[in-house]
NB-ARC domain-containing protein
Amino acid sequence: MARAVRRRAPVHSSRRRATIPLRSPPLPLVNPPHASSWFRRPTPAPPARGLLLSSPNLECRRRRRVFFSGGSGDAVGRGEVVGSWRKRLELIPMHMSSEMHIQQVEQCISIALKCLEPDSNKRPTSLDIVQSLNAEETKSRSLENSTSVAEKDRRNQNLFSQVNRNIINIPKTISAINNLNECANLFHWVISAASSLKSMCSGTQLEKLQGDARQLQSDLQCLSDTLPAMYNLIDRAEWRIHDHYVADLLSKLKDAVYDAEDLLDEFRWYEKKVSVEGNAILVEPIIDFFHSVTQGSFNKVTGIQKRLNHLSGQLEKIGLHQTIPRFDKSFRPETTAFPIEPEIFSRDNEKEKLIRMLGVPTDNSTGPSKRKRKRNAVCSSASNQICATIDSNEATITSVPVLPIVGIGGVGKTTLAQDICNNSKVICHFELVIWIFVSDDFDVKRLTKEALDQSSPPEKVPKTDNLNLLQGALAQSLSNKRFLIVLDDMWDGNELDWKRFCAPFRNALKGSMMLVTTRSPKVADVVRTMDRFPLEGLKEDVFRKFFKFCVFGPNSSNIDPELERIGEKILPKLRGSPLAAKTLGRLLGMSLELAHWDRILKSQLWELQQKETDILPALRLSYMYLPLYLKRCFSFCAVYPKDYIFKKEDLVEIWVAEGLVEHHPNISLHHTGGQYFEELAHLSFFHKYPRSHKKYVIHDLMHDMAQLVSKDECFIVKEKNDIPKMPQNVRHLSVVNGGDIQCSDLLKHDMAQHRKLRTLFCHLSLESETDNTVMEKWCNELLCMRVMVCSISNWGLPGSISNMKLLRYLQILDSSLCKSLPSAFCCLYNMQIFNATKWSIDDIPSIFGCQNLSSLEQLLQPAYVPNIKKIKILSCSNLERVPTEKFGGLLFLEVLYVFRCPKIKSQWLCAPSLKEMYLYDPGDLIDNIECSSLTKFHIWGYPTESIELKMWNLPSLQELRIGYCGSLTIIRDSEPLSTDLFHSGTRSRMGKFPLLTHLTISSCGELKTMDDLLYLPAIESIKIRNCGLQSLAANRLGDSSRLKDLEISDCSSLDWQSGLLLPSSLQNLTLWNCGDFSGSFPSCLENLTSLESLEIHDCECIVSVPGHMWSSNLKSLQSLEFFCQDICNNSKVIRHFKLVIWIFVSDDFDVKTLTKEALDQSSPPEKVPKTDNLNLLQGALARSLSNKRFLIVLDDMWDGNELDWKRFCAPFRNALKGSMMLVTTRSPKIADVVRTMDPFPLEGLKEELERIGVKILPKLRGSPLAAKTLGRLLGMSLELAHWDRILKSQLWEHQQKETDILPALRLSYMYLPLYLKRCFLFCAVYPKDYIFKKEDLVEIWVAEGLVEHHPNISLHHTGGQYFEELAHLSFFSEVSTVPQEICNT
């Protein structure tokens, strides 16, 4: 007799497991007393069986059918839901009675059921729902008002008993800062929390506090919104910094903007505090902070806002808001081809080389040829294009060669170009020399006119502004001439404008040339067709003569030796710059008194008053032309002393910490900062240090210019006398070691007056107790500090370091006797970089919630924390660099916990002493692990497609858990298996984890196979839940002789074609929704004599179990549960090959070893010969494969010995037709040895890039301009990560030039009337390729209030007209064919 399987109703199943994401348990919220906030009120999480639970599992779907099926089911479902809510609400203190909440729940259920009426006419409208909710709210308020005072007091007392501990329960999932709604979470929390304070429960104080908080939030948002306009205004004002009035206002405006940033960042720190500390936070300190900001009648926020408005108004009065920034002509007077210098000092070599590059013959005997030309110019009336028929010896060229001269300002580019233009050979060679002063205004029409004015007689110059006519006339005037065009002082590198300017020169006479002078290598790269010509400073001996000439004129004899000595000391500062020599020569020549010269020697160049055309004002033009983000980064560098040598990575980290790097979606700040650095280096603001290709230095003159533009913000203290000179509002300060300054001097100075300081580089040693006082003072007074680099006293960091709330970068230069960090260090929620290279630390607190922290490389080093036992890194969302490869030196490290640090990049994690590791969303921390003592390893939320077991060396592992890896598809191990337990270093049948006893894989929905993981000789428990597995090596389960617990649940795609084999040691078995294993049932249960618990759920293949099984085979069974449910089955996979053999070859092509491995995978163990005789092994292999269609994969083959290959293939001579071999190799030579078919080439990175490019292609929709835009962006780097980032980004997220695709399309949008702009802008809410109907969109526009009202015309009719206008303008495209599934919908 077969025993019928019992089926249980799903709603009564007490053992059903719901799959939920990993998260903290829900925390009760204290509700603010605003009962009307129905949709904003934080409500308790519904119970697991509740109506509102959204879950994909079957039970929830069945519950919905019960609740919404109508009839009696409605009452049953409603009663269950209400009961669940009532139990939960009774446990949570609230300002309203639980009964009122229950009434609201019942009302919501009633509305929901009405919305499900089959007849759409009976369903309530939005207005009906709102009115119903309002009516219920009014009813609740009346009930609340009628509640007795005693009842209210009782409820309030329950509430206060929880709040009187001054701890407010809040969820730990408060989001990070939203710049569009400044610190909204902070203010929402404060308003909610304040309502729970006993002292403010009633009366005007509570209302005033909440009202003040809302007003403060509004003011703060207004201040935040104002800053972008202020940045723009600063950028404009710097173009007129030579105006003393503007310079004074600019200094004040920058100071006000700095103050605004400091205040906003302090609010953001408190928001992070609320987000990180969760239910452990106190509300009083935050309210005290709010009071410190408002300070009675004065409000810091509005105070700064008024300053900004006032200064902005003052600058607006002088016209800064309207004008397009341009160079002042007094700083950059127009140049011509006529030199103003009577003599050029030793540029003969450069001049001769340039003349040769211009194609001018240098042989004196070669004069200009007397050319006779046959001209037949035909002018087209349509396009005014010129076609010239010229003799064969007078060929034309389609593009004129362009030679750029590049060098920093003042180096002599213009002077050299003028000298070339006036050279007799050049004049003879070119029929026409055109000189155009470009400057910062590259206007194609203006430049064309200037070229035309110099190439045609006045009567032939068209009196028009039509560019087509002008360029036609220019082309005609140049058509039969060999010309030289000089474009002097070019700044703008817009490629499109350059091509437009060059259009008339497409049929120029061969030998024509263009010469461009520019400071910008970027401009040179745009225009050049030849290698650019770099112009450096004058050589030392020549420069000395030139400098003397600048100081004394032609009569440089009889110079005072003392003056000459001072001059020699000044000379190196000028770095060979002719303009710098002129500047200093003029200043020195004003007086030949020794004191005057000595004063100039001891002064910084930027401190000397200079004319508009002197060196620093000239160099400042380069600074002014930078975009604002580069200006801020470069001007910051003035805090470093002259000749300071730095690395790119170090400077970028500090820029990021200073907040100087703009955020771009999907791009790390460090990557963007690196691009900033490369731009500045490309523009010659930074130079490679000669002795190291990784280090840089700032040119002396550029450093002087940096100090000039940042003189109010940056200051360097070199000696004691510099301290009183510090500007009161200085933001960046450097104290240099080597002078007469001591720490005691800093202690005597009142640093509180510099409380706005953001940066402190102090290279003085802090060793004494007095020095410790200096650090204490800094921590208590310098509260705006972002970056601090300093020494440390023997007492370590003071606890008051936590006062520096805004600190993001801390570098300790030397060691300390103190071996630990203060616990208050963890309150530095803005900390990004902590660098302590010489400080040995035994203990550090958990690194928790440092959302801006990007690197721990300088902290977690063996030399600094040699005795550390546990490392916890939690919720550091921007952390990238952790020195895991050096953890091998942490000899006492036992526990590593990394939680939600998705950007960590790790090449190798080596920690021999580590015993436990818990990783949740840990970046790529698990890619390469070597931890010989690790016993427990948990991985959660790892975003990868594969886990490669060969990258793990964990021989002691006992417990492995992998969960919530949504993109994981395979767990594999490509290492070979050996039959010999100790076979020559290869892994034996004991598997990768010989000591593993507990394995859990859960919620990996894309995981298809994990067979390689199941070589587990010591395994006792395997649990596989909610995975997309398609196959499972059941025979390996059967070989697990110690397995006691096996659970396979929610793996509906499993194909059990190879059968289900279970070991007799099994004690607990759970099979739940795991595919069709009917072919192995009930035979799989026959030998389970030790089985005590059996659960089979949702397995439709099981209909009955033979009766004899219960008494004979399952005699130890104590618990039995069957729970089956009809579900859909996946189709079975038909495999083409009966046997697949995988062999990892590597660089050891040993025929005997490979034969053994093939034999191990093709024969049962008892049929494998116990011998090393190759003849016997190959005979056994041939027999095992004789009647099978097999595939043998030889992976990573390096050895191409032809004889060995033939010996290995000998057993396969009589293989079944259809059998195949697949070889992977890096060597084409090996491919030629083994192949019988054409090799299949994989081009690695190129192929990957091509694959990504193919995916990007559909986004461009055939647009050539879009292709150019994305081509430029992709071409910036051929790194796979760069292309992948662009693929995963939206097109609008990428920074684009003015002529790229989106700015070009935006012109169409800008030309729309406002009412159409608003309607089209709204459509961005729809996903890409969303298909909609005109009527539906118009209805939504009307509901959004986007359609204007016109008398006697319905809004829908007007909206329809809007739609037609946008469609007519191609903003909407009609869909010709709609997919059938959409039509059905």
In short: The mean pLDDT is 75.
